[in-house]
Amino acid sequence: MSDCGIVFGATGKSYRNLARRAARNVRQVMPHIPIDLFTDAPLSDPIFDRVHLLDDPNRRPKMDALRLSRFDR
Fold first, then answer.
1. 63: which residues sit within 8 A by CB, 6+ positions away?
2. How far apart are the C-alpha atoms of 14 and 28, rounded to whole Å?
3. Structure pTM?
């Protein structure tokens, strides 16, 4: 596991777009922190270091994302 990173959990096109916008804001103030997205559809955006597909996302994808995260913090 990596020590520290940012995790986004977003399902659906509108929430994926919000996650992309939020990740860009994070990059402005923390340019070197790794950012991962957990989502229900493939997404190619260099703002994310890794995009993980959720096989069976629940209503709260952030909970899945935190459980599956590669980060300690």
1. 9
2. 22
3. 0.88
